Amino acid sequence: MAGSMTFANEWYQTNKPPWRVAVATVLIAAVFDGLAKLDDKAAVGLSIIVLIGAFTTKFHGNSVADTAAQLFGAKAPAKPKVRAM
Which helix (H) or strand (E) holds 20? Predict the structure, then answer.
């Protein structure tokens, strides 16, 4: 899921499919599958951490969370005004 979100977000932002993300997703999925055979709880915990990181980390401008907020109409929070002294 993390790889799919990252792939779609980068494709949406750059208008080019990021094939390196797809290859990395397949390789990391194989690693997680091997880890799941050793320790199922560790694999699930690490997967959740990776999913949260993929959702919030900014790649090429916006994170998946930023893009989703823009697509569904949420406005960006106003930046505080800095007063000159």
Answer: helix 19-38
The helix/strand/coil state of 72 is: coil
Q: Is the predicted pLDDT of residue 19 greater than 70, yes or no?
A: yes
Nearest to 59 by CA among 31, 20, 1: 20
What amino acid occupies position 50?
Answer: V
* Residue with the two structure tokens 């998946």: 64
Read off the pLDDT band of 59 (50, 70, 90).
Answer: confident
8 A C-beta contact, residue 11 and residue 17: yes
Distance separating alpha carbons of residues 57 and 54, to the nearest angstrom: 6
